[in-house]
Amino acid sequence: MNFKDWIILETISKEGNISRASKKIYLTQPAVTKRIQKLEKELDVNILYRTNRGSQLTPQGEFLANKASKIIKKVESIENGIQRMNESLSGTIKISASNFMMRYRLPAVLSDFKKKYPKVEFKVETGWSQDMLKKLQNDEVDIAFVRGDYTWREGKHLLFEEPMCIASMKPLDLGKLPEAERVDYRTDYKLHELIDRWWMQNYSQTPNISIVVSRTDICREMVASGLGYAILPKFVVEDVPGMHINDIFDEDNQLIVRHSWMFYSKKTENIKIVKTFIEYLSAIDFSKKED
């Protein structure tokens, strides 16, 4: 077995079948199938079995995939150890980031860092904040960028605060807000908690949600088309012409904001390439909106 075989096994386990695993590691499905068949012959075991949903790992295959994860982490640890001994900054930084952070904040930062350190590569995964934090907790990434006040007891840096607001294309009587049509959107549970807590502090009625969409940018367009109001981070709507924006406040009359964080583990903080990147990010003023 070679190192690529371990990567193939781990990826099949994570993705659930050969088809998705092949795309993830940029190999053709026949090439992956051929590698698995060679391994089965070499080890004299069945690694996969066929089902209606495609090829699945056998118990022996699951055992090998579990070992693969440990071996890959060990090899990466060795490689990072070598990087610490090397004066030149090179290697791969593994990042998990919320969809918003990767869409609006990080691409320019990663590009600028790579211009400064051209030998550095990035491996980036995106998704909901709670899922991105879980990847950091499982040692799958070096750094996680999350939105919301999640519990993390190791290294952290507050990147910026986003005021929350009520946005609509026409003036609203906030006293009658429960009667107005609201556009809602899928988001992580921390933001839902923030909005729901504010709502319950101000209204006894449930909101009149007329439309639910999958993302904040779609919600913004619905509101901009006059289809209702929404409770959103101000950043999302503040540049829409004619948009009426009302800040929202807690029971102590403090502006309600959403925090965005950079989390990292103590284990990776001392790796030179990761430490340099953390210091670079910490010096950036993310509160300034890009033109």
UniProtKB/TrEMBL annotation:
It holds the Pfam family LysR_substrate. Keywords: DNA-binding, Transcription, Transcription regulation. It comes from the Bacteria. GO terms for molecular function: DNA-binding transcription factor activity; transcription cis-regulatory region binding. Residues 1-58 form the HTH lysR-type domain. Belongs to the LysR transcriptional regulatory family. This is HTH lysR-type domain-containing protein. It comes from Salinicoccus roseus.
